[in-house]
Amino acid sequence: MKTVNEEKIAIYNGEDIKYFVFPDKFDHTQSGVPGNPCYNFRFRIFVFFSYIVLTQLFQLFCTPTEKITGVWDIGHQITTPINNLYKEHRWFSIALQLLSAVILDVAYLYISLYWVLYQRNFRLFAALIIFYVVRAIHLNLVKLEFPQNYYWEDPSIPSLVVKYGFFSDFFYSGHVGYLIICGLEMRKIGKKYMSAFFFICSLYQAFVVITFAIHYTIDVTTGCIFAHYFYNQVCYWEVKIDFFLKIIANLFARTPKQPNIKYEVQGDKQIGVITA
């Protein structure tokens, strides 16, 4: 293994893969897994030519050429019978709308209050701010037409975060992306069951927004991708974000005196404790 500073590094081996950390001065032309196929020149040549062939095949056979008027969405086409059920049986559509709203309201309150009571970093809200600011920019850069089956009538029961009626806030889905960020945050702090709950709820929200045709299918998939990407970026820059927040807070502080904070290890966790 070639490294700039010749540091010894562990090798990925099943159970210890999650504990692997690259040295500070690692040669990133190399791999943390010595002996993987990429060290074989013939394999790299095979990948190179396969890449060329596949890109040409995708251009020939996977690029649509039809002249489409409006927006063609296979998700809406497949779920048209369900959409018709909503219109024919109002009680059914109200039930699904209310469940969707309850899930989002509970997530909104739970994740926010948990942060207030237990967390000491800005990671969650940094991810949410970036997610929704970029979404707002996209909504005003490109305005899409309403789907033909758009159906989102007011069930006459208010919600904290869900609005009803005609709103062209399509790209990308905040319903799904928000729950993805909640799930990622819960997984980050070790709450596996809550994380799984939020991820399952995101699937339900995806079903609702597509079958009610209040989002295009691409809004849902990109909402998941953007949420995951922004959250990972915030995790990468987490310390610098908190440090920047501290600088801003110091500018408005009445006194420059800062609390004395030390770190204590409890089990496998390092916890900040204010001592004065």
TrEMBL record:
Keywords: Membrane, Transmembrane, Transmembrane helix. InterPro entries: AtPDCT1_2_TM_dom, PDCT1/2-like. The chain crosses the membrane at residues 43-61, 94-117, 124-141, 161-184, 196-218. Pfam families: AtPDCT1_2. Residues 73-231 form the AtPDCT1/2 transmembrane domain. It comes from the Eukaryota. This is AtPDCT1/2 transmembrane domain-containing protein. It comes from Paramecium octaurelia.
